[in-house]
Specification:
The protein is α+β, with helices and mostly antiparallel strands. It contains 9 helices and 6 strands. The chain has a 6-stranded antiparallel β-sheet with strand order 2-1-3-4-5-6, with helices on one face. The relative contact order is 0.10.
């Protein structure tokens, strides 16, 4: 039978109402499933933004821990921050959840602060910001702040000076140096890795001859927000203090989601969407890894 005759024969067949009803039900179910994708809807995007703001506010509030003068109690932990020359205030925090803070509760440092009253008081010729800022946390929850330099150990709360680590056991300086510098990823490797990732993806698009769509206005809005947020983070870190890692992690995820949201609005090619999703995940992983171990 010829093709034309077969088509004519099919047209003469009665319609299968049951089959039509089944197909219509499946299409309706597909539409309903799409409606449950709340994160991709406008309501979901607003809800996600409000959730980020709420969690960020909560983390920022819980990061504000007061510092108190401590009585003579057993030491629970000692935290250290390697001071920078540009620091103009005491920045160390009683937690390793802040970028740059290290737990230095070693036997040598615990012994130093337990026998602090046995050290002679001195009057240093010059007062600079110490090489290390230390927060000693006692079992009763109270805290004391110290600045440790080669020439002096300064009790910030009592305004008293003691001899520095050049006149102490070499193990003190060794413990601090090991905590801040050993088993760390070189931070300068982060930038080459990011450029390598971006260059590799650009090469993939070029070899596959995939043409990227022109960025929309929403993409530019996200890029501006991205840039302003990063500048705000660095400005805060420079002027106010250490960055709280859980809060910073929340900001990183929020920025990644904003960028992914703008890409989804512009791109319909499934290959590009997969590659851009890989790019977002890889960038987040690189940044988080270097923040944790850099």
């Amino acid at each position: 039978m010829k093709l034309d005759e077969r088509l004519t024969d099919l047209q003469n067949h009665p319609e299968d109402e049951q089959l039509k009803h089944s197909i219509r039900e499946k299409l309706d179910m597909g539409d309903k499933r799409k409606q449950w994708n709340w994160l991709g809807s406008r309501f979901g995007e607003v809800s996600f933004g409000l959730l980020i703001l709420f969690l960020g506010s909560f983390l920022l509030y819980t990061s504000m821990q007061p510092t108190h003068q401590a009585s003579s109690e057993s030491i629970q932990a000692i935290y250290s921050y390697k001071s920078k020359d540009a620091d103009v205030a005491f920045r160390a925090k009683p937690s390793v959840n802040y970028i740059g803070m290290e737990n230095v509760t070693t036997e040598n440092l615990v012994l130093l602060f337990e026998t602090l009253n046995e050290l002679p008081e001195i009057s240093p010729q010059t007062k600079n910001y110490g090489d290390y800022e230390l927060v000693v946390v006692y079992e009763n929850g109270e805290q004391r702040r110290f600045e440790l330099d080669a020439s002096y150990l300064y009790d910030v709360d009592e305004d008293v000076y003691y001899p520095g680590y050049n006149q102490m056991s070499a193990k003190i300086d060794s413990d601090l140096y090991e905590a801040h510098y050993e088993n760390k990823l070189p931070i300068y490797l982060m930038t080459p890795l990011i450029f390598l990732l971006i260059g590799g993806i650009a090469l993939f698009y070029s070899r596959r001859k995939i043409e990227l769509p022109k960025p929309s206005k929403s993409r530019y809005v996200v890029l501006v927000s991205y840039t302003l947020t990063i500048l705000g983070i660095f400005l805060y870190a420079y002027n106010n203090g250490l960055l709280y890692f859980p809060y910073l992690l929340l900001v990183i995820f929020a920025l990644a989601y904003m960028m992914w949201w703008s890409i989804k609005r512009d791109v319909t090619n499934p290959v590009i969407l997969k590659v851009e999703k890989f790019r977002m995940i890889a960038l987040v992983v690189i940044v988080v890894v270097f923040l944790l171990w850099g």
